[in-house]
Amino acid sequence: MLVKNQILSLQAYQPGKSVEEIKKDYGLAKIVKLNSNENPYGCSPKAAEALARSSSQCAVYPDGQAMNLRTKAASHLGVNEDQIIFGAGLDEVIQIISRALLTPESNVVMASPTFSQYKLHAVIEGAEIRETATVNGHHDLESMLSQIDSQTRIVWICNPNNPTGTYINETSLKDFISRVPKETLVVIDEAYYEYVTAEDFPHSVKLLENNENVMVLRTFSKAYGLAGLRVGYGIGSSSFIQKLEVTRLPFNTSRTAQIAAEAALEDQNFIKECVKINEKGLKALEAFCEEHQINYYPSQANFIFLKTDNGAKLYELLLQKGYIARLFPDGLRITIGTEEENEQLLSDFKDIVAHAHTAN
């Protein structure tokens, strides 16, 4: 069968080995999963209870407009209900945006490294990809501006950035947006927004009031602990969101996902507690890196990126100890776990670092 030429250059997403496979391969009784930036404490008890109550409704199609969730999310954000579009995780929202805007004649601008789905969908739509290398893990906004021309349809800003964890402050982001042509969409992906503690982090939803070419993305997969249910959403101008709705599949978010997300929004105390614990674990890991002279990027997310040429060795040594991290060409990304997992990781990491140095 004939498919788009650009698809021939891509590979389907390859998940790593399962926890059970790793246990068997390494003879381990327990594995600590620190590779996918999930909330180690799961979801709010309120969300879990709502899920249990929803099990009897699985034979009925979900609300295609997710009205109950839409109403609660709009109230939480302080926006109109018609300013929100929901997707099966942010992956689908990114796909919807790309499908609606990109053509082979267009281009997209993004940082490198950043979230891989921006590039994937640009390739699928045949658009030109203009990547700008990060500087010390941060978006190089000036270089990104220089890449924008009349054919630039989307500029992707991941804030905090995945995989580096770094962020763009409010002053810098406002200045950047003011210099982007109004016909170019600026997408601010804030998947890790709830974990941010920096006081100068942008109030990005407020930027929508005066910038119709800005869209903000949020998700229930990270701090809200609902990654397995797949609920993400975008916030933008009402007129633009209605255009995007044309490319959204009907019933794309399940009934159970909507119900759980509604309940999760109501339990902000759970989020606050998770953020507090995450910050403690993050600071402890950063202090460890300082003590052992390991290069890292200061993070505003629920993970830390170790900048090292020895990432493959560290990854393997972590596996031997029972920890799954995420390997990148220039380093290693480690999700912050529970308090108990973090304490054990730091204890084991002392041996790991010693072995890694010895190997060199």
Automatic annotation (TrEMBL):
The metabolic or biological pathway listed in the UniProt record of this protein is: Amino-acid biosynthesis; L-histidine biosynthesis; L-histidine from 5-phospho-alpha-D-ribose 1-diphosphate: step 7/9
Cofactor(s) recorded in Swiss-Prot or TrEMBL: pyridoxal 5'-phosphate
Question: What are the leading ranks of the lineage?
Answer: Bacteria, Bacillati, Bacillota, Bacilli, Bacillales
The cross-references to InterPro entries, in alphabetical order and at most eight, read:
Aminotrans_II_pyridoxalP_BS (IPR001917), Aminotransferase_I/II_large (IPR004839), HisP_aminotrans (IPR005861), HistidinolP_aminotransfase (IPR050106), PyrdxlP-dep_Trfase (IPR015424), PyrdxlP-dep_Trfase_major (IPR015421), PyrdxlP-dep_Trfase_small (IPR015422)
Gene responsible for this protein: hisC
Q: Which reaction does it catalyse?
A: L-histidinol phosphate + 2-oxoglutarate = 3-(imidazol-4-yl)-2-oxopropyl phosphate + L-glutamate
- Single GO molecular-function term? histidinol-phosphate transaminase activity
* Protein name according to UniProt: Histidinol-phosphate aminotransferase
What quaternary arrangement does the UniProt entry report? Answer: Homodimer.
Report the enzyme's class at the first EC level: transferase
Sequence positions bearing N6-(pyridoxal phosphate)lysine:
K222
The EC code for this enzyme is 2.6.1.9
Listed NCBIfam families: hisC (TIGR01141)
- Annotated ranges, domain Aminotransferase class I/classII large: 30-347
Q: Which UniProt keywords apply?
A: Amino-acid biosynthesis, Aminotransferase, Histidine biosynthesis, Pyridoxal phosphate, Transferase
